[in-house]
Design brief:
about 300 residues, TIM Barrel, two-stranded parallel ribbon, 10 strands, disordered C terminus
Length: about 300
Amino acid sequence: MRASPGRRLPRWLRKPLPLGDEMMRTQRLLKGLQLSTVCAEAKCPNLTECWTRRTATFMILGDRCTRRCGFCAVNTARPERPAEDEPQRLADAAAHLNLRHVVITSVARDDLPDEGAGHFARCIRAVREHLPEATVEVLVPDFHARRECIRAVADAEPEVFNHNIETVRSQTKRVRPQGGYDRSLRTLELAQAANPRMHTKSGMMVGLGETRDELLETFRDLLDAGCRLLTIGQYLRPTPKHIDVARYLSPGGFEELGEIARQMGFAAVASGPFVRSSYFAETLFAEKGAMRFPIGGRPPKREA
């Protein structure tokens, strides 16, 4: 079914607003440290819930993207120079929030020689210094599948290397005109090869005009690329200027897709209308039973 402009959302896509003032505390902390979040810049529907839980997904390298995707609300404009002190400010915020799983993403920075890979690495290492017990997940652009850029991030030892394929092959050009379906798969392959101890992850949106068979084909392609963590969520049109919603999948439909993906071989799957790449990312990571291995060492002992 096609969603027309102004059409009311299905009941399962209506979220109650959380009560309490924790959200405002998180907002003040992020504003005070001059940090951007994908929660706010991408108009995520989970913002109030996540900020109330005192968690957020940090967006580095500014709030201006060099690409213009048909689904994304992040501003496309000429970016500013990366802030040298951003890794330190990010680590300070993660420590203040007492995060156990830190998620870092960015705008696309095709204007930089390394497309921002070195800045990602510096942010990971800053978090390591401030929160040595925390796990780190990065959600990166495709880096044009450049081996040296991917290795720069992988060498900083994040536990999870996430790159979203977003949609099926037939919809990619319309949804991500400056991206590429095969390029995204190659990015995940190179990340797994660069650091086999990392867990590679990807995310997809439903409701962009894809078919069920195309979804299953993409699941297989991701598995072939070495990806074992998967998120599946409902595409929601952020503004009238963005791509329209082709359909709303029911919660039962998401449960079915998640079960199929698990049976196909994914180690952990989050599938639901409000699922996003970083939504309860720590839960998906724990579901896999993944634990951080000290460099060159054995897995840490689990607490009784």
